[in-house]
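User: Please predict the structure of the protein below. I'd like the answer in structure-token form so I can feed it into my own downstream comparison script.

Assistant: Understood. Taking the following sequence of 396 residues as input:
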Amino acid sequence: MDQCVILVGGKGTRLGELTRNFPKPMIEVNGKPFLLYILDYIQRFGFKEIILLSSHGSEYLQDYFKDFKYKNCNITILKEEIPLGTGGALVNSYEYLDDAFFCLNGDSIVEGNWLSIIQDFNETCDCVVALTKVDDPKRYGTVKLENSLIKKFYEKKESEKSQFINAGIYIFRKQIFKNYKREFISLEKNILPALAEDHKIKGRYVEGYFIDIGTPTSLEEGMNRKWGDEKKAVIFDRDGTLNEDDGYTYKTSDLKWKKGAIDLIKYCNDKNFYVFVATNQSGIAKNKFKESDMHKFHDEMQKQLKKYGAHIDKFYFSPYHVDSLLPEYKKDSKYRKPNVGMLQQIQNEWALSNKNMTMIGDRETDVQCAQNFKIKGFLYNGKDNLFDTYMGKIFE
């Protein structure tokens, strides 16, 4: 599932003059358009294709994203000639949709592992909704959830004890929209309630900060927030730590996960920790395999992780070695562990503090690297279950 569709066509009438001729998701929040916060998550979660369904202010979107490739993601903009609503926008884009795809509102975000809703998507349902909790659920309308099935959507101010609300993040089957006419349709008022009546829609709570910038009050909250402040990160060595190492492991067919590795990555994701890999790959320098082979291996890791609703935020690697057979890699690099170049790069790119970084590896060079950078480091023995061993130790 590589496609992510974003609904960006709303008029944003509650924001008045600010969005009169301007798309609400492109409002600047702390120095960059709000939509880019969403695109950051999409890219981190491994999606390659992004479709923006636009209407109001679409000219601005077309101009902004012209010749714009966001971190290796391909972006397509589909414009409605007349506003069709959140449901009608999806009906209008039917021919461009994958058989199953993620869909997000462009004016809200959950800073959490919303990729995890993929775990509930199977043959028993046609849609999964990410759910969140807020202090005043009546502003949004609530959701009645029973054993992962959504039984009912309650309108704003309706009486219902549930604190769960629709977070505006979905997985849909394309077939849902096949028989609807191309007219104004509300996803929230028409399509989702119909799926609930047919027992074809599930919901999963996603832990993390939620914001909808659709009102002046919530927009001001977003403006004043320190985005990404005090985030924590777990950095894993790769071979021998996350996967079995038979010596210069690079073939995708040789990928065998260590016991508990996927569970621990998923745990970190769900706790909203960044997850990185920092790996020495001297096999490239020694001409055992190519950089492209390594990238294919990493892509396969991400592909397998996604099935569990897990992901690695970014892979960092050092292909250098003093005994390299290839001149371009022959050097004693600051990026090769136990040197700290990769950790410094992670810290700089993700604005992390040392106290919020932890490293896990199976070699003394991994622990020495952590010590050199003055962060917490754990030496994994290569045998025990990773999740059982480190779940409670990472940031105790």
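That's the full token string. Residues 254 and 385 are 20 Å apart (CA to CA).
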